[in-house]
Every structure is written in C-alpha cells, then in structure tokens.
Design goal:
This protein is mainly β and 310 residues long. Helix content is 5%, strand content 35%. It is built from 2 helices and 17 strands. It has a 6-stranded antiparallel barrel with strand order 3-4-7-6-5-8. It has a 6-stranded antiparallel barrel with strand order 10-11-16-15-12-17. The longest helix has 9 residues, at 5-13.
C-alpha cells in the first residue's frame, strides 16, 4: 500500500523519470496513477540505463610500456530482417474473439441508474461481482457479451464461443453487495446482463511480420455475421497460436477450381486464384481475428486462405 510507479521506478531503475517505461511494460495497469496491493508488476532490465555511483579514485602506479593490443576476431553480424513497417487500426479496442472456453466474468451489470433499455457512454450502472472476484474502485473493465456458439459448417465440429466487446466501464464505488460503475466508452448498445472482464490496453499500431510458409485454413465468418465479406470487415479464421499464426502476419484468400480433361477424363487442379488478403489482429489458441485489407470480389464464410507466395 502506498507504492507508486514513480517510486518503483526510482528503486529499481535508479530514476523515477523512467516510470512510463515501467507502465508500458505492464499492459494490465490501465491507469498509471492507480495501482493496488496484490497487483503483480513485471520489472525489466534496461541495457541503456547506467547506475549512479560515487567515483572511486584509481591507484597511482608507475607507467609501463603499453602491450600491443590483440587484434579481435571479426564478428559476423546476423543479417537483419527487413523492416515490414506497421499498420494502424484505430478500432482495435472494439475487436472481439472466438474462444474455445468462455471468459471467466469478473462481474455482471444488473441495473442502470436511469430506467432505460440501452446503456451508453456516461451512464451509471450497478454491477454484481462474479465468483471470487472483487471489483476494485478506479479499475476499468471491458464489457462483453457471449453472442454465438460457433460450429464448423463442413465437419460440424465445435469451434468456440464468440465474445463481442461492447464498451468500457470504470468502477467508482464498492458496496458490500454490489459496485457502482460509469460507462467511459460504449462501442455499441450495452444491456442489463452484459458481463465484465479486466480491461487490457491494445496498441493501434500493429507491427507487420513475415508469414510462415505452408499455412492453410478457412474463414469462419464475419464478426457481425455479414453474409458477404468485403474490404475492412472484421472476420474470424480457424487457425491460431498453435498453428503458428501471429499478430501482424498477412495471408492470401483464394479459390482453386478442378476439372476433367482428355479422353480418360483425368482430374486436374487449376492454378489457385488469389482474390483477397487479410491482416491478423488478435490470436487465440485455435482461432484468430483478422481484418480484410483487400477483396477484389466478395468473400463468403468458408473461403480458403494460404500463406502468401513470398
């Protein structure tokens, strides 16, 4: 109790003015001016920070003939990977996910201060904690809704549950049986029964990465269930962390036709036709959330994607 990022920075980095670096390395701290007992803070060692020490006088010795300095062996620098740049997506805070298991909710909205069906920015809501979680005053939470159970259209296998992000609330006061919170941002209409999970900052600048070879998969659906998917639509794919998918990678959307040729009607595969691209925004274990960045024709659920031809 009583710790601040300023003091922790002074203690562990020898300068309180480095507290923004400490904050940027801990994405779960929503407000740098409010940290609480029990929070875990990760410390980073900076190579470019020198410790302030008192100078020590060197002993006086008689000068000797300098020894020839040995020629150091040449150091082979590893080749630098070419910079791929960054992609800025301002709506990253509003992007949802598909998860195999649902998020454990920290709370649920059970009432709004003024009688209304749709809750929006600046509204005051009453929240009940869920399970063993505590709702901490001054802490922000993301409001979400479990909207759809998702199944594979071809195999009928269970994929996961769609989590739609609705906005952000900040807890202002806690009572023995409930907490009071203010809606600081509403992406869409929030309703009674929507749930809370801890807020985590997301950077709008996404560093592009080289995509590995040999990855193929399918587009599951659009986030807002659009039947036709086009440019700058958010969608989900059926590959994730375990498949080597990472944020910032790009993949090509394609189709490949087959036919028969010759007297013996031999089956042949025609070359793939690429008609779209997407950028990976978020990843889960077996699914990812992507942004369609290019579509020369409409894209439908079930469309195939593959690693780009580098």
């Amino acid at each position: 109790k009583g710790d601040t990022l300023w003091d922790l920075s002074r203690k562990f980095s020898d300068s309180p003015y480095l507290w923004p670096d400490l904050w940027s390395g801990n994405s779960k701290i929503a407000n740098p001016h409010r940290i609480y007992p029990g929070q875990r803070i990760r410390l980073y060692r900076r190579e470019d920070t020198e410790k302030h020490t008192e100078p020590v006088a060197e002993p006086i010795v008689e000068a000797a003939a300098p020894l020839p300095e040995p020629t150091p062996p040449p150091v082979e620098e590893p080749p630098e990977e070419p910079a791929l740049g960054t992609f800025t997506f301002a709506g990253i805070e509003q992007v949802g996910v598909i998860r195999k298991a649902p998020v454990a909710p920290h709370g649920k909205i059970f009432k709004v201060k003024e009688p209304k069906k749709m809750i929006s920015t600046d509204d005051i809501v009453y929240v009940a904690a869920e399970g063993e979680y505590l709702l901490i005053p001054g802490k922000r939470y993301t409001v979400y809704r479990e909207t759809t159970k998702v199944w594979d259209g071809k195999t009928n296998d269970y994929i996961g549950i769609q989590h739609t992000l609705l906005g952000v609330v900040e807890v202002t006061k806690s009572q023995p049986d409930y907490s009071i919170a203010k809606v600081t941002s509403a992406y869409t209409n929030i309703t009674i029964g929507d749930r809370l999970m801890p807020y985590e900052r997301r950077s709008a600048k996404i560093g592009r990465r080289k995509s590995p070879d040999g990855i193929t998969g399918e587009i599951i659906m659009a986030e807002h269930h659009n039947r036709i998917i086009g440019d700058y639509v958010i969608a989900f794919i059926n590959k994730g962390d375990t498949n080597g998918i990472q944020v910032g990678q790009s993949y090509s959307i394609f189709y490949q036709e087959s036919g028969q040729a010759g007297r013996k009607s031999k089956d042949i595969q025609f070359p793939p036709v690429h008609f779209g691209e997407f950028l990976v925004l978020l990843t889960e274990e077996t699914t990812s959330t992507v942004l369609i960045t290019k579509a020369s024709q409409h894209i439908e659920a079930g469309a195939q994607f593959r690693s780009p031809m580098n």
